[in-house]
Design goal:
With 361 residues, the protein is α+β, with helices and mostly antiparallel strands. It has helices spanning 69-73, 96-109, 117-130, 203-207, 210-218, 264-275, 287-295, 334-346, and strands at residues 8-9, 34-41, 55-58, 76-78, 81-85, 91-94, 142-151, 163-173, 181-185, 223-227, 235-238, 242-247, 250-253, 279-282, 299-306, 310-319, 322-325, 357-359. The chain has 2 domains: 8-173, Aminotransferase class 4, branched-chain amino acid transferase, N-terminal domain (D-amino Acid Aminotransferase, Chain A, domain 1), CATH 3.30.470; 181-346, D-amino Acid Aminotransferase, subunit A, domain 2 (D-amino Acid Aminotransferase, Chain A, domain 2, Alpha-Beta Barrel), CATH 3.20.10. The chain binds pyridoxal-5'-phosphate.
């Protein structure tokens, strides 16, 4: 593939791929041999747009000043997407464009420099080309791609940084969760408020979520289901997934707002569900509505949607101390059907009608 960006490559002396057990790809455990690094400076005298030449280098520790602004004031943003091994052996980055656009929106919200599209796209392509052996071909497996950026400028007064580092690393993964989830509707702590940064994939959102998630784990749940910051009355999303409910045979998901992350998987599933003829609604879902739906048995499924989790069935929802169990799921469950369709498109077994696949080669 012809790239517009010149990317220098310094290869690792030894590959670590032999240390990987591809039959047990625990999420987040393995990283591939290389990473892409590209620096930005407002004041770079030589560069035309402030961006250095990107480089593919061996995966290694980053060096940064203790005064690096990211460490203190939280200018960090990340993305998460996946590359799949297709049926014919080629490699597909799923919905790369949409991830780039969201990356740019998150960066803008955090006052950070935005890497040009070519650096993002060509950087990913080059990196995957160099580490193509790391793209697994198991049915639930993929190469997880983690582009991120942080304020690297060393200055300890709070300010918008003038220097940033853009990095991409990758690692083979299976789906995040291996069994159906127990979630707790959270009504004390909040993840994001109107006007805040909930719609940005910035590091701080996750740091703040750890404590309430730990409390929920101590109570026997896997994750929290966040509610709105104002009234704790409407469901928002889960830890790193958007959520969907099937009530009266309609797939319902809360509408996007500035306190909900605009998930690419969410969007994909909504498009596919409509195409497959399911009734779909983006509308507020209140906690009372869920309780009522459980009492009347009109709720038949609940699931999370995200790149890491893919489609993650929810088995139980804790609401105000009552644990409500969802009916058992089978192959014919709606979320299973959607997941199979998504998988078929990403691996080239079904037509890519919407131009979601970006074939690397
Ligand atoms: C990344 C993320 C999601 C899911 O987004 P995808 O694009 O589908 O991976 C949902 N919620 C939060 C908070 C996230 O960080």
């Amino acid at each position: 593939m012809e790239l517009l960006t010149e990317i220098a490559v310094r290869k690792a002396a030894h590959s670590k791929i032999k240390e990987v057990n591809f039959d047990e790809l625990e999420f987040g455990k393995y990283v591939s041999d290389h990473m892409l690094v590209c620096d930005y400076s407002v004041t770079a005298p030589m560069a035309d747009n402030g961006w250095d030449q990107p480089m593919v280098v061996p995966f290694s520790n980053l060096s940064l000043s203790p005064a690096a602004l990211a460490l203190h004031y939280g200018q960090t943003v990340f993305e998460g997407m996946k590359a799949f091994r297709m049926q014919d052996g080629r490699i597909n980055i799923f919905r790369m464009e949409r991830h780039y656009e969201r990356f740019a929106r998150s960066l803008q919200r955090m006052c950070m420099a935005i890497p040009p599209r070519e650096i993002f796209v060509d950087g990913l392509v080059k990196l995957i080309e160099v580490d193509q052996a790391w793209v697994p071909d198991g049915s639930d497996a993929a190469l997880y791609l983690r582009p991120f950026m942080y304020a690297s400028e060393a200055k300890f007064g709070i300010k918008i940084a003038d220097e940033y580092r853009f990095v991409i690393f990758t690692g083979p993964v299976n789906e995040l969760f291996s069994r159906p989830l127990r979630v707790k509707v959270e009504t004390e702590y909040v993840r994001a408020a109107k006007g805040g940064t909930g719609a940005a994939k910035c590091g701080g959102n996750y740091g703040g979520a750890l404590f309430p998630t730990r409390l929920a784990r101590e109570m026997g749940y896997d994750q929290v289901l966040w509610t709105d910051a104002k009234e704790n009355r409407f469901i928002e999303e889960s830890g790193s997934m958007n959520v969907m409910f099937v009530i009266n045979d309609t797939i319902i998901t809360p509408p996007l707002s500035d306190s909900i992350l605009d998930g690419v998987t969410r969007d994909t599933l909504l498009v596919l569900a409509e195409e497959m003829g399911y009734a779909v609604a983006e509308r507020p879902v209140s906690v009372e509505e869920l309780e009522e739906a459980f009492e009347k048995k009109t709720i038949t499924e609940a699931f999370g949607a995200g790149t890491a989790a893919v489609v993650a069935p929810i088995q139980m929802i804790g609401i105000n101390g009552n644990d409500y169990t969802l009916p058992a799921y089978g192959k014919q469950s709606l979320h299973e059907t959607l997941k199979r369709k998504l998988h078929a498109i990403r691996t080239g077994r079904e037509e890519d009608k919407y131009g979601w696949n970006y074939i690397v080669g």
